[in-house]
Amino acid sequence: MAGAVAPFKPITGMLRRGLILDLSIALGLGFTFGNAFWYGYHMPRTNARDAHYKKLEEQRAARQGN
């Protein structure tokens, strides 16, 4: 058994390549979906909220005559 040759090639380097690919995909998707959330949901909601409070402040100022 000491001189037996395995019928398949050793897996050297596969873990490292797979890890780099998995990390690249995870970071890429995380960045993509993070930006999609930030600019597709968070910023429009924030701008709508700010516009609402600006309108209320303008109405309040108009009632007070400022």
Structure commentary:
- This protein has about 70 residues and is mostly helical.
- The model has no long low-confidence stretch (mean pLDDT about 90).
- The relative contact order is 0.05.
- The protein contains one helix and no strands.
- It is about 75% helix and about 0% strand.
- The chain starts with 13 loop residues before the first helix and ends with a helix.
- The radius of gyration is 29 Å and the shape is rod-shaped.
- The protein has a domain of about 30 residues.
- This is Cytochrome c oxidase subunit 9, mitochondrial.
- InterPro entries: Cyt_c_oxidase_su7a_fun.
- It comes from Podospora fimiseda.
- Its main location: mitochondrion.
- Belongs to the fungal cytochrome c oxidase subunit 7a family.
